[in-house]
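Per-record layout

source: Bacillus sonorensis
name: 2-polyprenyl-6-hydroxyphenol methylase
length: 267
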Amino acid sequence: MAQQIQQYDNISSVYDKLIPEPDGLFDFYTSFAKEGVSILDIGCGSGRLAFQLAQNGAIVHAIDISAGMIETAKKKLAQCDRKSSERVHFEVADIKDFHCVSRFDYVFMSGGVFEYLLTPKDQAEALQKIKQLLKPEGRFIFDIISPPQVCAYDKRQKDFGNTAHPPKDHQYIKSQNIFRIDHYKQIVSTRCLFEIHQHDKVTEKYEFQFLTRYTLPTEMFYLLKSRGFAVLGFYGDYNKEPFKRGSEFMIYVTKLSSSKENGNALK
């Protein structure tokens, strides 16, 4: 994990350039950001979503395990308008051992952050912490990419970086993702190669690798229920289209289970 964090530290200054968010992600999450609501943004990266939430009037506490990413976010914060900058706080933290006296209206894990919980134990610990951090009527909302059994990784169209028809007179990015999958542990090793082109010449190259864990839809529903969450919405993309075979994303809107609902959940 330390090596993985270091790689994100290393690319933090160019992260926004290399890895744009999927279409619709910002609109989906900011639709919940009403004036004055409190939001915990887990795995905030360089702060792209956190700033948009704050601009919508939300009070945002944004955390990331990468110190480099938080440093980049704080540099952006210094350039923000005063009103937005007063509404967002960045902190280096791991959700599994994060401590905060506040309770939140919403907890977000956007951009597949949940996939970085590499074992069932990690997933359970994170969900337990999130449960403690939510207000009684709060919502936990997160997205992950669909497992390869639902949408093969080489068939995905909505991820970052690829330019099918690059302009000849502007800067553009070419990327290649190389996957190795351990289906027994559900662990995906991804090697990302990036080339930044200017006028058809390569000006910069970057490479980094990371591990994630895929989760099957039925497995996720069971996990959420067993940890005291009830699913209110389950979507296949950020436009809230129903999940189906071939959907590239699994997006969950959840709440804390009631006492009656908890009666059927695992202890």
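summary: Residues 2-147+215-262 form a domain with the Rossmann fold fold (CATH 3.40.50.150). The chain has two domains: 2-147+215-262, 153-213.
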